[in-house]
Structure formats: C-alpha cells, structure tokens
Amino acid sequence: MRNWILLQADFGDLQYRRNVYVFALKMAFLAVILSGVIIALTMPSLDLLGLLPVTLAHAIGFSAIFSWLIGGTVSGMLSLFAGFAMRDLALSRAEFEKLSRTDTLSGLLNRRAFTEALENTDGDASLVIFDVDRFKAINDRFGHGCGDAVIISVSAMLRSAFDEMSVVARLGGEEFGVIVSGEPLETRMERVESVRARIAGGAMKAEGHDIRITVSGGVADLVAGRTKQAVYASADRALYLAKALGRNRVVHEREGLRHAWHGLVDSGVDGENKGPESDNVMQAYGISKQSANERALVLASGRAILHGRPLSKTDISCSASRPIFPPEPLPPIRSPKSSCRMICAICAASCCIWKMAKWSCSISRIRCFSPMATSWCATTAN
To answer: How many C-beta neighbours within 10 Å does residue 150 have?
Structure first.
C-alpha cells in the first residue's frame, strides 16, 4: 500500500480533485476488505474456544456491519485528508520543477532545461544560437525596461515561429537557443532565415519608442558520432562569424568554413594584402595572422568542402575545441655551434672552480705553519 501511495504522487494522479476522491474511496474499500478477511479468520477460532457471546453467524454479521460503518468511514476520511495533503505536495513539486526549468522574463526554457533537451536529442536535427545585435546599445539608449521588452518580443516571435517538435530556450542575456528537428536541412535553414527576416523587418514598441533590432544566428548539425559539446562549440563559432561578417545574418558551420577559405584565398597563405573583413573571418575561426601553417590547413579543409567531400571523423572530433588548428610545433633543435659554445662554457667554469679549490688549500697550509715561523723569528732576534 505504501508503494501504491508513492506511485500516486510520483505520476501526478493526485493533481486533480476528482482523483483525490477516487483515491479515498479506494482506500476505504481496501480497509473494509482487510477487516473482512481478519473477521473470517478469527471468528471461527473464537467460536471453538467459546468466547463468542452470540452465535457465529450473528458475530460475523455484526462484525461486517461495523467494519463497513466504522472502519470504512474512518479510513475514507483519513485517506481523504492524506490525499489532499499529497495533492498539495504534488502541485508544489510540479510548480517548483516548472520554475527551475523556465526563464522568468521570457517564459521560455532556461539553459539547464535546454542542455537536458540537447543531450536527449537524437537523429537529424540542427542547433541554432540566436543573439540580438547591439543589445547593450539598446539598454544604454532606451533603458533596461526597453531591453526587457525586446527580450519578451523576440521570445514571442521565436515561440510562434517554431512548432512543438522544436525546443526554444533563452540561454542567457540576449542569447537564445533552438533545436530544430523533423525536417530536411534546407527546410530548417529556410525557417531560421525567415525568423531572422521577420525580426529585422518590423519595429517593436516599448515605452513609447519604436525600436528596430536585428539578430545574428549560428547553425550546427547534430549527426551521429558527434558530441553535443562539439555541436554547441561549432554553432557558437558560426554565430561569432555572423557577427564578424556584419551582423543580421545566419551562418551555417559549413558556410563559415567557406568564408574562411575564400578569405585565405584572397589574401594568400602568408596573409598579405587582406582586408578588415578577412581579418574578422580569420579571428572568428581563431586563425592568427602570423601562422602560415594554420592558414594552409584551412585552405586544405576549404578545398575539401567546396569539392563536395564530406568532413571526416577526424575533422568532426577536432571541431570540439579548435577544429582547424594543427598540433603545437616541436621545440627547435640546437645548432652545432651553440652546442660547442655550451661545452666550452662548462669546461671554463670547471677550470675556475678547480683553481679556486687549489688556492684555498694553499692558504690553509700557510695558516698551519704560521705559529712555527713566528717562534723561529723570535729566536733569531734574541
């Protein structure tokens, strides 16, 4: 019975009043049945011992009536009180669970719930990270109240744009995350692009101001053999690249590599004569200006993508942290001249140490014979 009561609370059956009354009625019937079984087992034994003041039939009848009237009523009332108490606990737990997984300002899922949904997502899907462009400037110019209104408006647009199969959440600040699934990649990209265009095409009214905003987005695909951390990192880099390319755009992870490849082709492997946009693209993908080896590696990856060759498992696994960086270079090998100089320096230091030791030994001998020399000089003078 204890396990059955716990199951009622765990599955949320007691959240409705009707279920509480059904629960109390079940418990009352259960109490009556148990009392009937006890009466059927004990009355014959008492009759054999002569302890019954009436006949066995009358004793069983009276016991059944009292078990229904007293036992059923008492157990039903106690079960009713317990059911309402359990209902309050179930509602409180459900409310607490909802608050712990919901962002209070936007009404969307928070980062914790979004991370759990991302970990449980299997199959063909895409991760999209949206970020409101120049949100700090909106807060500085119109105030934080208008900033909150912008967050609420963007949340409503995202909630209405994606169906129930998608997961929409506010990751923090002006950043939003969406898991789009159940459609081909081209359809998913069209939907994401339409959301961006819809937000950029209208003005939001907040505290008497007409505020026009834009959003940037980064997209990465969830495929088999790829960790969720790698997918999130790739979508975040694509978002950074969308910001670097001028904002108000959506960049897919493969499109980002194409941008990086074209930027390297325009500037050359040595990085000479490249413009500021190429600098932003290189910075978005973590490519330094001085490393020609990194640039050559990106050129090779870009050629593979433009020729239609899919990324290998090695490329996918490397994309978790720095997907286009080569391993760290080995330390330089010393030249023969530097080795000879080091050997000569060691020999010279050894000679100096040996001479200093010999000189200290000579001084010690002179100090040992100094008393004898003093006595000889005094005898000669006399």
So the answer is: 21
